[in-house]
Design brief:
Length: 240
Amino acid sequence: MLRSCTAGLRSLWALRGGREGVPRPSTDLQPAPRLFSAEKVIHTDCALPNPSWSKDLKLLFDQFMKKCEDGSWERLPSYRHRCAQISEDFKNYFLEQKPVKEGRLSQVRLFTRGFEDGLGFEYVIFKNNDEKRTVCLFQGGPYLQGVPGFVHGGAIAAIIDTALALCAAVPGKAIMTANLNINFKRPVPLCSVVVINSQLDKLEGRKLFVSCNVQSVDEKTVYSEATGLFIKLDPEKKSF
Ligand SMILES: CCCCCCCCCCCC(=O)SCCNC(=O)CCNC(=O)[C@H](O)C(C)(C)COP(=O)(O)OP(=O)(O)OC[C@H]1O[C@@H](n2cnc3c(N)ncnc32)[C@H](O)[C@@H]1OP(=O)(O)O
């Protein structure tokens, strides 16, 4: 059990079937589900509109939901807690890691989902599997401020990493970011909505090369451009 927990805690970045995290309990006051147990939990998908979403975000969300109707696009659900059924790849990979204390397990959150609604990262990602690309609609809340009035560069990096990771994600395979390069071209206004267009550029063995741009809703402003390299974990290898 400890070994599994260890692997799980190291797997916040792990992608399984393009889903982020796992279902959370109906309230945080309830006992957290045991790691990797089959206990029933109530799912709360965070990649759905909530009252903090701006008109722009809701409008774009509706447009992409329409695109999902013919099956060419899919909305990726997203949860606060980590994956309950993790890939065997990274169970093996991080077998020797030291576990986080049991008492802290219920506090573990997916970084980009760790804030109250509207205060941090509000986002939803849509994926087009045939075209190997994703679109992330992102609204950076007031707790993400860096330079006054603008989103912190680290927060932008985090959402870019997430968007690229889900673009590169291979169902059932664990991947990690090996390299992330970002050009910050314009500051992103706090509480505004931006669109992150990502694509898988190349697949070379275990290496997945992806790129993205971060644009304003009207596509007139390019805020950032980035490239990323993700590596599929080798089940035969151990990390430590
Ligand atoms: C459930 C919740 C969901 C949540 C979902 C939400 C999404 C969140 C996404 C967050 C993602 C993260 O932040 S992940 C956290 C940040 N990343 C990390 O901590 C990764 C730390 N790095 C590592 O553990 C390791 O370096 C790995 C796993 C990346 C790679 O190690 P490895 O498996 O041993 O691979 P290795 O043999 O070294 O390299 C394989 C090939 O890749 C090349 N390669 C490796 N690194 C690089 C590099 N930086 N730049 C260029 N090339 C590289 C090698 O030359 C080689 O090429 P060739 O010889 O084959 O040609």
